[in-house]
Specification:
Elements: H1 14-23, H2 25-30, H3 74-92, H4 99-125, H5 128-138, H6 141-150, H7 156-164, H8 169-182
Helix pairs in contact: 3-4, 4-8, 6-7
Length: 184
């Protein structure tokens, strides 16, 4: 079946198709020319091995400082931007090297990113039945209470610790068993 609207040369970029769309008589009559930038790409869920060199610090999305559970990154980016600014200021005075940034941001949010990635991988591999069971478990009144008090989307480890310490040991062991199998 032929696909309507595809150009004859599928190797052309998305930008080419955007430009062609903007040339269309109806679109061009309504388009005010306000496009100032064009950004394309996925959100990295894992930081690169190095985010600091002699002259460059990567921060936020560019550094993979993104919550794997939601793709959000405002909090992580803000924490790491503050660290980057402090380190850059100190490095300009020769009080430290930019490599300090790597140590500090990983110490501040690295563990949360790792836990978030484990959660992301586990939940992504659950069967529909296991996911329904997991959601039903989280919907129990005592678990919802824990979530309300300790749930923090920027620090999932706090809730996970409280969940582990809750009185639902047998069901929790079963759920973690299913989640653990999904990692391998």
């Amino acid at each position: 079946m032929a696909r309507i609207g595809l150009a004859k040369n599928p190797g052309l970029s998305a930008r080419y198709y955007l430009e062609k769309l903007l040339e269309h008589p109806i679109v061009s009559s309504r388009y005010g020319g306000g496009r100032t930038e064009h950004v394309v790409g996925g959100i990295p869920l894992v930081p690169p091995r190095k985010t600091a060199t002699d002259r460059v610090l990567l921060v936020g999305d560019a550094a993979g400082q993104v919550k794997p559970t939601s793709g959000g990154g405002v909090y992580m980016g803000a924490v790491c931007a503050k660290i980057a600014g402090e380190v850059a200021a100190r490095a300009s005075r020769k009080d430290c090297s930019l490599s300090e940034y790597e140590k500090r941001w990983r110490s501040a949010v690295g563990r949360e990113l790792e836990i978030g990635m484990l959660i992301h991988k586990s939940i992504g591999k659950l069967s529909d039945e296991n996911l329904n069971e997991f959601v039903a478990f989280l919907n129990k009144p005592d678990i919802r209470e824990l979530m309300t008090e300790y749930g923090d989307m920027d620090h999932p480890s706090v809730f996970m610790q409280k969940l582990i310490m809750s009185g639902n040991k047998m069901q929790l062991i079963k759920l973690f068993g299913v989640a653990f199998k999904t990692l391998f």
